Amino acid sequence: MSFCFIILAGGNSHRFRSNIGKPYQKIGGKSLIQISVDKARKIKQIKKIVIVYNKKDSKRIKSLKIRNVKLVLGGRNRQQSTLNALKHLINNNKISRVLIHDAARPNFSLRLIRLVIKNMKNSRAVVPKINIQDAVKQKIVSSLSEYILGKNRKNLFLTQTPQAFYLKEIYNLHKLNAGKYKDDDVSLYMDLDKVKFVDGEKNNFKITIESDFYDMKKIFKSNQYVGIGFDVHRLIPKRKLFLAGLKIKSPLGTLGHSDGDPVLHSITDAILGACKMGDIGQMFSDKSKKFKNIRSTILLQEVIKKIKDKGFFVNNIDINIITQTPKISIYKNKMIKTIAKICETSPYQINIKGKTTEKLGLIGKEKAIACEVITSVIKYD
């Protein structure tokens, strides 16, 4: 089964009182759109990602610089936006099914996507739902009076996204109902025998107003973990000096099994610690010839890939580089950009401070360089 993951971000966010629309609000340094994209990329059945955006957000969506996605201009309502995305896909012979998802629901799990996809093997459509627990009332207003009518909860439920459909079928339903507003895509089905409902997730609620966003941030914050890293390397002649992935011009270089980059080694250890995945020595043994003189950028890239596979993403990194020489200030901006690129974060999530030991000890005598790092990661799944 080959799916396209459609992210609907074309609304006006008129109930969300902010100059920045809901899809572009950030949690843990990532926009709600980016969080959904990152999760979708972990699902092997998803071969393409389409983001539907509002024209007024053209500059904002492009500023996110999300690679390998198709941007489609939205319509005047949700249904028209979905139809625009489906029109883009309808002649793609490699895509047979679609997952349609609201950008304002960033807290769906990979388990939920896999459950929806699994049930598409024997269904025409699959939709997550949540049963209603609270008592439900309806206000009835007539010309004579107003009164409250109790409703039976048995046949009432809340639908969520992502919802899965056959591409051609949902495309034809949207064309047939063009101009008739529906609140979500499953509403287009008159015959619910074609629809398989699966258990949704309590925390996969849609952000509509500001308080929803703050509640969501609390949930993500509860999934935040902290790790620390430390590394020190002796300085010797006839070795290259690498710091934070940059080659530094210096008469002395660091002694190490790899390229001896204490900054990237400390970052790697801090991230592994935060994710409870051991340390750099366990993952990349200094007894292995495979890692002899290897660039530490490669090691950190591998770690980022491994933590993403487990649902972790780097939230922020604070770095102390402890050295008498070279001076860090002239390299700081390039270092930050290099680390941010490897860790797939914004440069604003990285902080570097250069420290000395006031000429005390081996570091003060320019015989060693040390680094200490504290980092936080967020588990999005």
Describe this structure as you would to a colleague.
The structure is a single chain. The chain is of the alpha/beta class. It has 2 domains: 3-221, Spore Coat Polysaccharide Biosynthesis Protein SpsA, Chain A (Alpha-Beta Complex), CATH 3.90.550; 224-379, 2-Layer Sandwich (60s Ribosomal Protein L30, Chain: A). The protein is 28% helix and 29% strand. The protein contains 11 helices and 19 strands. Strands 1, 4, 5, 6, 7, 10, 11 and 12 form an 8-stranded mixed sheet that branches. Strands 16-13-19-17-18 form a 5-stranded mixed sheet. It has a two-stranded antiparallel sheet with strand order 2-3. A hairpin with a 2-residue loop joins strand 14 (241-243) and strand 15 (246-248). Helix 3 packs across helix 5 and helix 7 runs parallel beside helix 9 (296-309).
Summarize this structure as a short list of keywords or feature phrases.
381 residues; alpha/beta; Spore Coat Polysaccharide Biosynthesis Protein SpsA, Chain A; 60s Ribosomal Protein L30, Chain: A; five-stranded mixed β-sheet; 29% strand; elongated
Fold topology:
Layout: E1 3-9, E2 26-27, E3 30-31, H1 32-40, E4 46-53, H2 58-63, E5 70-73, H3 78-89, E6 97-102, H4 110-119, E7 125-131, E8 136-141, E9 146-151, E10 157-159, E11 163-166, H5 167-176, E12 195-199, H6 210-221, E13 224-237, E14 241-243, E15 246-248, E16 252-254, H7 262-274, H8 280-283, H9 296-309, E17 312-322, H10 332-343, E18 350-355, H11 361-364, E19 368-379
Parallel strand pairs: 1-4, 1-6, 4-5, 7-12, 17-18
Antiparallel strand pairs: 2-3, 6-11, 7-10, 7-11, 8-9, 13-16, 13-19, 14-15, 17-19
